[in-house]
Amino acid sequence: DSGVTQTPKHLITATGQRVTLRCSPRSGDLSVYWYQQSLDQGLQFLIQYYNGEERAKGNILERFSAQQFPDLHSELNLSSLELGDSALYFCASSKERERGETQYFGPGTRLLVL
Amino acid sequence: AQSVTQLDSQVPVFEEAPVELRCNYSSSVSVYLFWYVQYPNQGLQLLLKYLSGSTLVKGINGFEAEFNKSQTSFHLRKPSVHISDTAEYFCAVIPMDSSYKLIFGSGTRLLVRP
């Protein structure tokens, strides 16, 4: 158990819908990262938050957004869902005192868009 | 830009045999290097990482990796594998000059047979 929790574990929805994925980082970790794992794209970085502020953006679609709340949990919002958004979405956290720190991954949320 | 190449998508090996999983990277700046393992239906777990110092790094579960700067490689090895090592293995880098995001290879599936 990494200490990172993600809810829900599974999500089945229809095209055009909107969903929210939730992540609680390890105790004491200020940084949260979101990654998408799909068969065609592999593991890709989406976005990073540090202590409530957006730190870096990767290959995140405009239909996707995220935020980190004062209690440091984070939510990833996916809207106008398409079939191609079906994937495993991981959250990771780290203290981010320095680069190279280990990122601890949650169990993921498996999203299926029908 | 940085990229990570894992040439072998699948490596079958018999139990108690040695194994090497190959990883090469491309980067115009120095990088930190990581190996993560993903067991079926689970999140990613750090096996080992190279930040600096000795180029031979030992990790959990008997795995080790060697950083070779001239060949830009970070191959993962284990002298004797177990059935329980069957999993997906990901090599990743963090560039030293930019964000804290992990850049992953496409993964290698290690299949250990009895």
Write the layout of secondary structure elements.
The complex is a heterodimer of chains A (114) and B (114).
Chain A: E1 5-7, E2 10-13, E3 19-24, E4 31-38, E5 42-50, E6 53-57, E7 64-68, E8 74-78, E9 87-94, E10 104-105, E11 109-113
Parallel strand pairs in A: 2-11
Antiparallel strand pairs in A: 1-3, 3-8, 4-5, 4-9, 5-6, 7-8, 9-10, 9-11
Chain B: E1 3-5, E2 10-14, E3 19-21, E4 24-26, E5 31-38, E6 44-50, E7 56-58, E8 64-68, E9 73-78, E10 87-95, E11 103-104, E12 108-113
Parallel strand pairs in B: 2-12
Antiparallel strand pairs in B: 1-4, 3-9, 5-6, 5-10, 7-8, 8-9, 10-11, 10-12
Structure description:
The complex is a heterodimer of chains A (114) and B (114). Chain A is mainly beta and 114 residues long. Chain A is 0% helix and 53% strand. The radius of gyration of chain A is 13 Å and the shape is globular. Chain B is mainly beta and 114 residues long. Chain B is globular and about 45 Å long. Chains A and B meet through β4, β5, β9 and β10 of A and β6, β10 and β11 of B.
Key phrases:
heterodimer; A: 114 residues; mainly beta; seven-stranded mixed β-sheet; four-stranded antiparallel β-sheet; B: 114 residues; 53% strand
